[in-house]
């Protein structure tokens, strides 16, 4: 057996412990000696298609480290490089977009070492793109002048689980990058199975384990045959000299925390769906259960797995908002019809009281309309905070005062129950006072805005006085909110009242749900920015800069998949997980964007879970997956197949 020959390794510290800073420290402390002769490329056994790597076509870059990271982390690597270095000691180049026009061979070659960048930062997407270009030129690396035309002093793959599949094009592209030293950074070296490790070992060119037939003989085959101890002993032998891993729970020899972090509290908040939301959920659940039962009876469960899983996805979406389960075209048509009706009545989802009174008084002067005069009178009473008795329950003052489209007032819940009661009897709901037809869509609650909601406007107006009157508005009760959004609003407002300026991060795996949260935050004057996978690298960097630097309280809306890895969000100390993921490890990764080195405050996490729903069952599956992960995923393909069926049974039981 050949001796392992690896210049580099796997840094697998738990998320949030500063892997980026450790690598920057290495870049500063370990540099090449330009007087030394160029080292030849390390020998490797590689059964994948290879690009030609003639010495004449690849230029040695003795001073340059290449960092490959997800697109969302490019700006962060550049920012951390600047913060961790004295001015002028580290030159960085973000090789992305327009910067790709530079010829890296000329820029980084030994003859230009004094002017060469110390760090080149690029994305996995750029590596794959240039790999395809060079492959199309019959493997001529030098003519392109790009990433593959250079032999770097060091390559660092950040979030290296991006190459966990050895057969993926991205993994194959990364294998072909040339360097003397190779490092991989990942908080999750094993995502689903032991074979994930092989891809990392193959990139590091650890002989003989980078040969898949060798790996298969000594690790995969014993593993699949049930000889776990033998297989894991070999894995441990391979990894021991390669891997450095530390966790947040580790202690120093004197018993202190290895990395002192502020406390973190994770609370599961049980959400109760409204009657309308529950009806949508129950309908989708019944349909999914019927499909599952029919396929079990027919013995076609695995064939119909995709169909059943799509219905489960709809079920999860209905826990967030019923609109997520409906056709966009139908929703758009309904919104157009509702907007046309509002226009004819002069109504809107959110109406400023002052503006409405002025509008009524102007119309009254022109046309002497009794309804306008009465409307202005009612609204002025509200403005003067005159307490009135609810005509339905006789409570004084009304609890959550609401008004109808004909401008008569009652408690919000009394009014909605009154309308529902008449509907249940098969009657057209009519106003308790004037007998005009009314509906729940035209019920508006009186909102007295807290002074903090005006802070953003005051902050941008230096001459503003603090003695302003809080705004009052009439807000449509049925205005495309959901139980989860209402709960989120409650906590955001409560947090801002208790501690002004607190920043929060809101995670959801559904960008369409973030689309629905946005207008509600805007309506309530809660400032926010958004970060998701559809944005360009520059737009992402601008959002993160804005979120970090703006001094006032701000909410960051973040898609779980785009923002779950690598980002540093220590400017926030409140996290809201709007929906659970199948594995809690993914949620934990997202939470660790906030709870990590550099976080000075306690972090509070709210996980919103709908009571009695598929989401509660997902939490049980998460617990089981934690156990499976702790046993290194020791399941055969057949066992995994059985487990998937068991998961579906549990979800639809």
TrEMBL record:
Show the PROSITE patterns listed in the entry: HELICASE_ATP_BIND_1, HELICASE_CTER, ZF_RING_2
Q: Which controlled-vocabulary keywords does the entry list?
A: ATP-binding, Helicase, Hydrolase, Metal-binding, Nucleotide-binding, Zinc, Zinc-finger
Boundaries of every Helicase ATP-binding domain copy: 1-207
Q: A Pfam family in this protein?
A: SNF2-rel_dom
Q: Using the record's annotation, list all stretches that form the Helicase C-terminal domain.
A: 484-643
InterPro entries from the UniProt entry: Helicase_ATP-bd, Helicase_C-like, P-loop_NTPase, SNF2-like_sf, SNF2/RAD54-like_C, SNF2_N, SNF2_RAD54_helicase_TF, Znf_RING
A GO CC annotation recorded here is: nucleus
Domain (RING-type) spans 390-435
Molecular-function GO term, any one: helicase activity
Q: Is Metal-binding a UniProt keyword of this protein?
A: yes
GO terms in the biological process aspect are: DNA repair
SMART domains in alphabetical order: DEXDc, HELICc
- The parts of the chain that form a coiled coil are none
State the family it belongs to: Belongs to the SNF2/RAD54 helicase family.
The name this protein carries in UniProt is DNA repair protein rad-5
Species for this entry: Diplodia seriata
